[in-house]
Write a structure and sequence with these properties.
Length: 314
């Protein structure tokens, strides 16, 4: 949600050319390039006590998939503080992980659809131990079988989650691996994350469901605009990309005080779409891609999501 103190016009730029995004942004952080600002000193609150560095804090929470990307500059207290956002991210991610057979910390999560009325049958999706077979106990209304095309469509009625909590959980992943220079230039991000300061939030994002590529281990990349302003066009300074299971989510960090100092109301803001479709390969000119445009990252009330997944069947 944008502050009432200024107006920003947003244009969505969606082009097939995958170089468009990389012409605008450069990669500045990922788990593979992560380096603690000061080892065993919390980058958020400055805590140094050894007794508050007992928990293995993951750069990417294992609710998005099992991984070994550990933080060495996040204390247990801050880890606990931020966990309140992650429960909503877990609800959002569960159907993708279940249907993709992706293990989280201990096992492949079980998905259960919500009930909208008394005695409504649930659809449950789980993986049989030691097997990739999907066991589905279902409400038959959640299934559509097209025998002619050999396609099975499954509707997942996701339990309610709060989109703004998901947005904050995603942004926290980016802040956890942000290089020291950018982190100290934008200390107000942490104040925003803990809820003691308001910043203009960009409620837009994009999601792509891959047709071919699956991420057994989640990945995260933080990109920074090469130039914030080009002519009268402005770009969000930081873009986050999270990939897990069969989905890629793109989002924008809030606009920091440092950014707003240089912002002019005469500038319009462009959101350039990350070419997530390119990972499926074999692109053709004029090929159509289904990219979901997220517009409610600022919503602070529960949101019920109905997602559809299509599988080929013999």
């Amino acid at each position: 949600m944008f502050s009432n103190l200024f107006n920003i016009v947003i244009f969505i730029v969606m082009k097939l050319n995958p170089l468009e995004f990389f012409d605008t942004y450069e990669l500045i952080a990922s788990p593979n390039t992560y380096s603690p600002i000061v080892p065993n000193e919390c980058r958020y609150c400055g805590e140094k006590s050894e007794v508050l560095f007992k928990t293995d804090c993951h750069l990417i929470p294992e609710l998005l998939g099992r991984n070994h990307f550990l933080s060495r500059d996040e204390c247990d207290n801050c880890n606990q503080l931020f966990s309140k956002w992650e429960s909503h991210l877990a609800i959002f991610a569960r159907p993708y992980l279940s249907l993709s057979n992706i293990k989280t910390k201990n096992k492949v999560p079980i998905f259960q659809s919500r009930t909208d009325y008394k005695d409504q049958p649930r659809t449950s999706i789980k993986i049989e131990e030691g097997s990739t077979k999907r066991l589905i106990h279902s409400n038959l209304d959640d299934f559509i079988l097209d025998t002619e095309k050999g396609l099975l469509q499954i509707a997942t009625r996701n339990p309610g989650f709060i989109p703004n909590h998901i947005y904050r959980a995603l942004c926290k992943i980016m802040l956890g691996m942000m290089p020291s220079k950018e982190f100290f230039e934008n200390k107000d991000f942490f104040k925003w994350l803990e809820g003691t300061q308001e910043l203009p939030e960009i409620c837009h994002g994009f999601q792509y469901k891959s047709q071919k590529k699956y991420y057994k281990t989640p990945s995260a990349q933080l990109y920074k605009a090469k130039k914030i302003v080009v002519g009268n066009i402005a770009y969000p300074e930081f873009v986050g990309i999270i990939s897990f299971a069969n989905t890629i989510v793109q989002f924008y960090l809030p606009l920091s005080e440092n950014y707003l100092i240089n912002h002019s109301d005469q500038n319009s803001m462009n959101l350039v779409v990350y070419p997530s479709f390119a990972f499926d390969g074999d692109m053709k000119q004029n090929q159509k891609f289904k990219i979901r445009h997220i517009t409610n990252f600022d919503q602070k009330e529960p949101y019920k999501s109905d997602e559809k997944f299509t599988f080929k069947v013999n």
